[in-house]
Write a structure and sequence with these properties.
Blueprint: H1 15-29, H2 33-46, H3 51-63, H4 82-91, H5 93-104, H6 111-123, H7 127-140, H8 145-157, H9 161-174, H10 179-196, H11 202-211, H12 226-242, H13 247-260, H14 263-276, H15 281-308, H16 313-340, H17 345-357, H18 361-371, H19 378-391, H20 395-407, H21 414-429, H22 433-444, H23 453-459
Helix pairs in contact: 1-2, 2-3, 4-5, 4-6, 5-6, 6-7, 7-8, 8-9, 9-10, 10-12, 10-14, 12-13, 13-14, 14-15, 15-16, 16-17, 17-18, 18-19, 19-20, 19-21, 20-21, 21-22, 22-23
Organism: Persicirhabdus sediminis
Protein name: Tetratricopeptide repeat-containing protein
InterPro entries: TPR-like_helical_dom_sf, TPR_rpt
């Protein structure tokens, strides 16, 4: 049976080890970092469960500049492989604990070493030390989100949801598109809230079960007030915390976040619903839609900030980079959806739109032409196809698309105005003033304030 190490505080140290610890504190006080680390190793050899000494060793290593210039350690120069560390743990976990600690002197934020310390501490039943090992990664190498996920899961396994939620927040800052972290954050927060309010009592559990929606329950009502939405969300999250695989509840949470326009959480829950549903395409579409909305909202925030500070070169660069990344991601995901379902006209339209926004007009045309088969989106497809032909300088073909669109339109609604306006612009490009003015006048007769049609029409009479 593997030996277990009891984690202790300063009061549990024997006299000799406590004397060593006091010498550590004195060395730290005069900034004698190397000697302090050496003494910490001696303390840990005598009392491997004394976490405070382990923390002090790491702190002094960082203060001494360790990691910037790696020393040759017990396992060789540079990094130590996970395989080698695991071999030491398997052979003798207590001895591995000392060897890993020695290596951390020269590289306190090394991911393999801290992961090894975590595994070793788990084997030796040292939960506080295990958490500290991965918290070190969170501090010094937060970009290693794989180990941060491991830390969050460890906290959840120990019923510490508040700590897990904090870790998920760190992950989201590193990667805002990490849907598992977004979902994990909400799940952990809900569990922490329930724990705090003692929702796990039998009475509370009974009330939650009574309020759980059945398979035949009505869907979420549209037009709820914000207060009603918040109350419903609290109820759903409480149910969800008891059963995270309840597809009905996960879908309702996603729908409610969609109504709230909380696109980050909407994407996270619909992504989870998609996995639970054995790949329901409709749920995948919902998740993708939420992600597109999230990216668009983030871009809009940057755009507004740039409008308020137009001379800010750094902000301009951020906006352009975010815009380029958004176009690239949207195009890649739209192509993947078409590859999975090439006969869907709506997906063809989305891919054509993605190519259009990317400036690849030739690539957009065949997808838009295929998308015209869907009568429900035919008008907007023809409008985009006309814009695409216009960008390529093929104005006669652009006019033909718009004429086909107008043939399907009767009422002068917003769609017809948009088509007429675009047709007028193309006629103007062609210096066909009569037909251009005719398009603008049709709009002017019913909507004086539409874009700049009033100015265009009235100038023609001057």
């Amino acid at each position: 049976m593997t030996e277990q190490i009891v984690e202790i505080d300063e009061n549990a140290l024997d006299a000799a080890t406590k004397d060593l610890w006091l010498r550590v504190l004195s060395a730290v006080e005069i900034n004698n970092h190397e000697f302090a680390i050496h003494l910490c190793q001696a303390v840990l050899k005598a009392a491997p469960g004394f976490l405070m000494a382990r923390k002090m060793a790491r702190r002094t290593a960082v203060a001494a500049g360790a990691g910037a210039k790696k020393k040759k350690g017990l396992f060789g120069g540079g990094g130590v492989s996970s395989m080698k560390i695991n071999g030491w743990i398997k052979k003798n976990p207590l001895e591995a604990l000392e060897l890993i600690e020695k290596e951390l002197e020269s590289d306190p934020y090394d991911s393999n070493l801290n992961d090894g310390l975590f595994e070793c501490a788990c084997v030796l039943a040292m939960p506080e030390t295990a958490a500290f090992a991965l918290e070190t990664i969170r501090t010094g190498a937060p970009e290693n989100t794989k180990l941060l996920h491991k830390l969050a899961e460890f906290y959840l396994s120990r019923d510490e949801p508040a700590s897990a939620a904090d870790v998920y927040t760190t992950i989201c800052k590193q990667d805002p598109t990490d849907s598992y972290a977004l979902k994990g954050s909400k799940d952990a927060t809900a569990r922490a809230s329930m724990k705090k309010d003692n929702w796990e009592s039998k009475d509370s559990l009974a009330s939650v079960k009574e309020s759980a929606p059945g398979e035949d329950s009505a869907e979420l009502e549209q037009g709820m007030t914000r207060e009603q939405m918040d109350a419903k969300m609290a109820q759903l999250l409480g149910i969800y915390a008891q059963d995270q695989n309840n597809l009905k509840v996960v879908k309702q949470i996603g729908d409610l976040y969609e109504m709230m326009e909380d696109w980050a959480n909407c994407h996270a829950y619909f992504s989870w619903a998609y996995e639970l549903s054995n790949s329901d395409v409709a749920l995948k579409d919902k998740a993708d839609h939420a992600k597109d909305k999230l990216v668009a909202a983030q871009l809009d925030q940057l755009k507004q900030a740039l409008a308020a500070d137009p001379d800010n070169a750094e902000l301009q660069a951020q906006y352009e980079a975010a815009q380029a990344e958004s176009i690239e991601v949207t195009l890649r995901e739209a192509q993947a959806r078409v590859d999975s379902n090439p006969t869907d006209p709506h997906l063809r339209y989305e891919l054509g739109l993605a190519f259009y926004n990317a400036g690849d007009f030739s690539a957009a045309i065949p997808h838009l032409q295929q998308a015209t088969r869907n009568p429900h989106i035919r008008t907007k497809v023809l409008l985009l196809l006309a814009k695409t032909f216009r960008e390529k300088g093929m104005r006669d073909l652009a006019i033909k698309q718009l004429e086909d669109a107008l043939a399907d339109l009767v009422a002068m609604d917003s769609t017809k105005k948009q088509v007429l306006y675009e047709k007028g612009l193309i006629h103007a490009d062609m210096e066909d003033d009569i037909n251009a003015l005719g398009c603008f006048k049709e709009i002017y007769e019913v909507d004086y304030g539409y874009r700049d049609v009033a100015q265009r029409v009235e100038q023609s009479y001057s």
